[in-house]
Amino acid sequence: MTDTTAAPDRAGATRRRGPLVALLTAQYLSAFGNAITIVTIPLYVLQTTGSTATTGLAGFIGALPLIFAGAAGGVLVDRFGGRRLSVLSDLSAGVLVLLVPLLAATAGLPLPLLLVLLFARTVVATPATAARMALLKPVIEGAGARLESANSWYQAAPRLGLVAGAPLAGVLIAATDSVVGMYVDAATFLIAAGLVAFAVPLAPSRKTASGEQGAAAADGPGFFGQLREGMALVKTMPVIGAMTAFVVVTNFLDDAFTPLFLPTYAETVLHDSAAMGWFLGAVGIGAIAGTFLYGPASRSFLSNRRYTLFGCFAAVSVLRLMLYFEPNAIGVTVICFLVGVAGGPLNPMLSTVMLERVPEELRGRVFGLTGAMALTSAPLGVLTAGWLVDLAGLRVPMLCFALVYLVLIAVSWRRPGLRAMDEPVDGGTARAAEADEKPVLHTGPDTPNEEVATR
């Protein structure tokens, strides 16, 4: 009797895990394809044009939509649903990537058309990030998994994709040419779209109230009105606003490390540009390890999120301060690995807090807006670091950028918004799904609770 009743329970649990597995697989495929594109597109442009200036222009055009496409896509997620937009985004991006090698092999691909395709590919691919995040919490709850654990699996995808995809892209280019990598990227988009379309169900609220939501979309604010609603929500939720502000500053510091400080260190201090490959690999592997470790560690010594946030960035700061003493290549590789480990828990932790507190019907806008805001400071960090290195050499700017982390932690230590990261949702000890239906958000002891009205 026991065996016959246990079997259906196990089967039911397996079926509930299916959507989460499908969504995670789609995320990993997308990250893997993006990593291949990062390598193949610049090489393709360089091989076909022979111009480094044109290659740089192609990179700029391909990255430019990240500034606005995330925020705009977040509104579309909330208007049309995460599953629908995720599928449409991946399908469109896959077709656009596929057009590059097909046109090059048949009718020809002039440079202006190539730039248009690269721009359009980023425009249509970017909303998939917010769309999959909007789908994540329901499928995690359906699988009976912890938010922290599932988020660590989800957030590891871009890092694992880069570590695995970039070397594979190099092998493909060496064995064939850069065109093959674009076929692989297109295939990953199309497979990801199929997985989400056929294996991830609609959220219950969208299935049961689709008519009401359609009427609300028609009678409610338009595109820019909904975008303003997302901005207003961020303003009324101090925990989200404080985390976003913190990440904007740290992105300014972080994005100068890999593309500028590390290659400059390898070239001017070690006189070995090949060491850059070891540094990048160490950072990536360390970040993967730190991201996966967050799930189990969040039950014990990383259970306090505010201390985790400050502790991780303090560790990153101390590690980067060591570069001031100009260690050898092995020492820098070890430092890079430890920097990756220290930074690994941050993304899954921050996204867990947002999934707990942002109402379902506003998740697309909030994730899109905060992601776009976080990206705005990264180019400024690289430009500022480059100017400082030209002005004062390498050691002083590296020291200053590392010390700013400690200054930021000191300034933010008593911020009530960040203290609210550890406040229970809806007054309960368990962070339950009912929080989406009546989102009373506890922000911190020095600020009043804010009730977010939902349509």
TrEMBL record:
One of its GO terms (molecular function) is transmembrane transporter activity. Keywords: Cell membrane, Membrane, Transmembrane, Transmembrane helix. The chain crosses the membrane at residues 20-45, 57-76, 156-176, 182-203, 232-253, 273-295, 307-323, 329-346, 366-388, 394-413. InterPro entries: MFS, MFS_dom, MFS_trans_sf. It comes from the Bacteria. It is found in: Cell membrane. It is a multi-pass membrane protein. Residues 424-455 are annotated as: Disordered. This is Putative multidrug-efflux transporter. It comes from Streptomyces hundungensis.
